[in-house]
């Protein structure tokens, strides 16, 4: 699914690679025991290590190592038995150590891959270059005082996984699908909460353009983009900007740019520093990190079923379409909910009800699935009532609306409102006869060849029955009488 952009000199192809920073879901920081929780009063989650006090020694948090390994396994990646923490040296007021402890030449996770699901239903594999562990920096606050800047070190030392893709994506849609799938994987694994609003997942977006088939062009890196929509907007804008420059006879300078969420544009932040500017060297306070095969295998055994496997299983086991299965597995809770609804019921009916009715109602009410007023068991009961012909699909929608509004059970609503479907032939026949008696002209037209009127008769009978007549029986009876 290569989306080409039209320029004056012909078609251009976008080339995109993403570096995603995902905060490891742990209680404490990468090298200290301070809380890694989001928020808190400024400078309350700070140990002397995070404040860069001289003489403090970092100690690796084993939980972060486990979760990085688990994430690597989830990305079908090679886990490196030995990796090395290095100092990446630079000065920033919110980096009190004067360097960031990161991994460089020897990351904990090597090459892997992710399958992404594209809007047209196809699947594409995007390569993963590496995943490494590193510390987050603190935060400078420039809007608290007219003359002064403040610094909040709560985030300083938080554990991050930097997940670097290969430059394999060719459109904003592919980049969006990549971030969506990566987010689903880490959330299934519980290694990152994937909360982009709180910054626990953020993307650096690398974009270049080229003529199809040509060598890779010079890229620009757009820093810290924090939603899927912004990632896509940034790519779209940046690719067009680069094409304009090249077609105007200019060249692209490799640089770091910022995305302006207010108008969807990017602007230059600084020219790109090279790795040698950081003077990376192995941190003398930390031994090389060794993870044994046994440790890796123990982690593998605790891994849950991942989105792709679940999608395949939903297609095989329940006969769902690729499209429906893809939406259902998008969130782990959604897939679990569906399976509970489907238990003992028709799976396609269950999937339709979850996907269109329930998710639609939740979306309208701005509610999450976990706050759904209708439980999976309750939705299952409603579907049971459709299956055993107690109510029609149309009445079921009414019942559902009341369930959603009140939290009541389907059976109770049907009972209280007398919505039980009429399946008594005699009773339906009475209504059919009444409708026919009221419309002699229409019967004439129907018999004269106006077949479409059949729907009119069905509609009238259903209406007269308050929607409760069994539609199949109405059809049969009408056919019999009209053809007599
Ligand atoms: P650095 O560490 O300097 O940021 P990397 O080589 O690690 O550089 O690449 C960073 C990201 O840029 C990767 O996700 C990679 O896929 C992407 N990338 C590399 N070359 C290009 C290019 N020509 N166009 C678009 N993205 C690219
Ligand atoms: Mg980079």
Quickly describe the structure.
The chain has 484 residues and is α+β, with helices and mostly antiparallel strands.
Task: Please characterize this protein's 3D structure.
The chain is an alpha+beta fold. The chain folds into three domains: about 5-300, no CATH class; about 305-415, no CATH class; about 425-480, Arc Repressor Mutant, subunit A (Orthogonal Bundle). It has 15 helices and 16 strands. The strands form four sheets. Strands 1, 2, 6, 7, 10, 11, 12, 13 and 14 form a nine-stranded mixed sheet that branches. A three-stranded antiparallel sheet has the order 5-4-15, with no helix packed on it. Helix 5 (about 305-320) crosses helix 6. The radius of gyration is 30 Å and the shape is elongated. The protein starts with a strand and ends with a helix. The mean pLDDT is about 95. The structure holds adenosine-5'-diphosphate (ADP) and magnesium ion. Adenosine-5'-diphosphate (ADP) binds near residues 15, 17, 19, 167 and 219. Adenosine-5'-diphosphate binds next to strand 2, strand 10 and strand 11.
């Amino acid at each position: 699914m290569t989306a080409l952009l039209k320029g004056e000199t012909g078609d251009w192809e976008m080339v995109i690679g993403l570096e995603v920073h995902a905060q490891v879901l742990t209680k404490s920081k990468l090298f200290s025991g301070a809380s890694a929780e989001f928020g808190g009063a400024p400078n309350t989650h700070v140990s002397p290590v995070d404040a860069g006090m001289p003489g403090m020694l970092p100690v690796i948090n084993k939980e972060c190592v486990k979760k990085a390994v688990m994430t690597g396994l989830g990305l079908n990646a090679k886990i490196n038995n030995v990796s090395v923490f290095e100092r990446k040296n630079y000065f920033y007021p919110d980096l009190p150590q004067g360097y960031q402890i990161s991994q460089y030449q020897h990351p904990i996770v090597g090459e892997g891959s992710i399958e992404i699901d594209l809007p047209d239903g196809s699947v594409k594999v995007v390569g993963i270059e590496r995943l490494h562990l590193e510390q987050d920096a603190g935060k400078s606050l420039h809007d608290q005082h007219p003359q002064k800047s403040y610094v909040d070190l709560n985030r300083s030392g938080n554990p991050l996984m930097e997940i670097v893709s290969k430059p394999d994506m060719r459109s904003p849609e592919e980049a969006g699908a990549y971030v969506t799938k990566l987010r689903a994987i880490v959330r299934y694994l519980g290694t990152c909460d994937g909360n982009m609003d709180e910054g626990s997942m953020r993307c650096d977006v690398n974009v270049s353009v080229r003529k199809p088939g040509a060598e890779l062009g010079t890229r620009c890196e757009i820093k810290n983009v924090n939603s899927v929509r912004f990632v896509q907007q940034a790519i779209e804008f940046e690719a067009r900007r680069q094409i304009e420059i090249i077609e105007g006879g200019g060249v692209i300078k490799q640089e770091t740019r910022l995305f302006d969420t207010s108008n969807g544009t990017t602007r230059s932040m600084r020219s790109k520093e090279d790795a040698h500017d950081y003077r990376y060297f192995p941190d003398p306070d930390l031994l090389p990190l060794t993870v044994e095969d046994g440790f890796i295998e123990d982690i593998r055994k605790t891994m849950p079923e991942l989105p792709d496997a679940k999608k395949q299983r939903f297609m095989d086991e329940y006969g769902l379409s690729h499209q429906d299965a893809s939406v259902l597995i998008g969130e782990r809770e959604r897939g679990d909910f569906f399976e509970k609804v489907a238990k003992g019921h028709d799976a396609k009916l269950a999937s339709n009800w979850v996907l269109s009715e329930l998710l639609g109602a939740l979306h309208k009410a701005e509610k999450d699935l976990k706050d759904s007023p209708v439980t999976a068991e309750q939705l299952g009961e409603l579907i049971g009532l459709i299956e055993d012909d107690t109510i029609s699909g149309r009445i079921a929608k009414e019942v559902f609306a009341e369930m959603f509004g009140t939290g009541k059970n389907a059976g109770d609503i049907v009972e209280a409102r007398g919505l039980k479907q009429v399946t008594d032939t005699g009773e339906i026949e009475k209504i059919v006869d009444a409708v026919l008696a009221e419309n002699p002209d229409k019967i004439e037209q129907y018999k004269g060849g106006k077949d479409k009127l059949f729907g009119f008769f069905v509609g009238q009978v259903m209406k007269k029955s308050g929607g409760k007549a069994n539609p199949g029986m109405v059809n049969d009876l009408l056919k019999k009488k009209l053809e007599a």
